[in-house]
Amino acid sequence: MKNIQAIAFDLDGTLIHSLPDLADSANTVRAHFGMPPLEESLIETFIGDGVTHLMHRALTADFNGTDEARIEEALAIHIAYYGEHFTNRTQLYPHVKETLAALQARDIRIALVTNKIERHARKILEHYGIIEYFAAIYGGDTLPVHKPAPDQILGVAKDFNLAPEQVLMVGDSPNDMLSAKAAGSPTLFVSYGYCDNEALINNPATTPDYQIDSFEKLQEMLAKNKVEV
């Protein structure tokens, strides 16, 4: 990785293990409509495309399902519930805080690029004491479009006065890879998140430039000067 001046991180499945609280929220929505809860393992497959897709999938128990009749009510319930319970069982992945501090110490600028709504993302970063490391934050509702569109990453590059190829995108989902590739940015895939790893790696449209299996490996790459700045 040559001349990387900034790193844009995804949130869910990359910096935080948020599945338990997202599952609780999705099942709270289902309970409101008199439906039984879904297994966390199924809800895990619903994460990554933003809150609207998550709610459609939760309502229908189907990745491709839609429920236009109940979606607005479901979104309101989720946003209210999740906004009060997003740290009940969510945890930072190991070594996240130390790695962000190491990046900042190397003068690498740090951004958040997530499909989670911005106010929830900011509250989560604040709660876990890491918001100070982020010089730019793009949520799913910050711009008119979000991942897999390239706009958020292009926004980061513009904010930092960098070319897109100087911004490394780190994430766990196809949308992270697609948005970065569309922007012209290099990609680093974290394989511990919420994704079908084999499908992502073997699909030419989402094959990452680099891959790590734990967040601490990024710090190891820095320590061994494998990331050139």
TrEMBL record:
Transmembrane segments: none annotated. One of its GO terms (biological process) is carbohydrate metabolic process. It comes from the Bacteria. Its cofactor is Mg(2+). GO terms for cellular component: cytosol. InterPro entries: HAD-like_hydrolase_sf (IPR050155), HAD-like_sf (IPR036412), HAD-SF_hydro_IA (IPR006439), HAD_2 (IPR041492), HAD_sf (IPR023214), PGP-like_dom2 (IPR023198), PGPase_prok (IPR037512). Pathway: Organic acid metabolism; glycolate biosynthesis; glycolate from 2-phosphoglycolate: step 1/1. Its EC number is 3.1.3.18. The active site is at residue 10. The keyword Transcription does not apply. It holds the Pfam family HAD_2. It catalyses: 2-phosphoglycolate + H2O = glycolate + phosphate. The keyword Metal-binding applies. Mg(2+) binds at residues 10, 12, 172. Belongs to the HAD-like hydrolase superfamily. CbbY/CbbZ/Gph/YieH family. Specifically catalyzes the dephosphorylation of 2-phosphoglycolate. Is involved in the dissimilation of the intracellular 2-phosphoglycolate formed during the DNA repair of 3'-phosphoglycolate ends, a major class of DNA lesions induced by oxidative stress. This is Phosphoglycolate phosphatase. It comes from Suttonella indologenes.
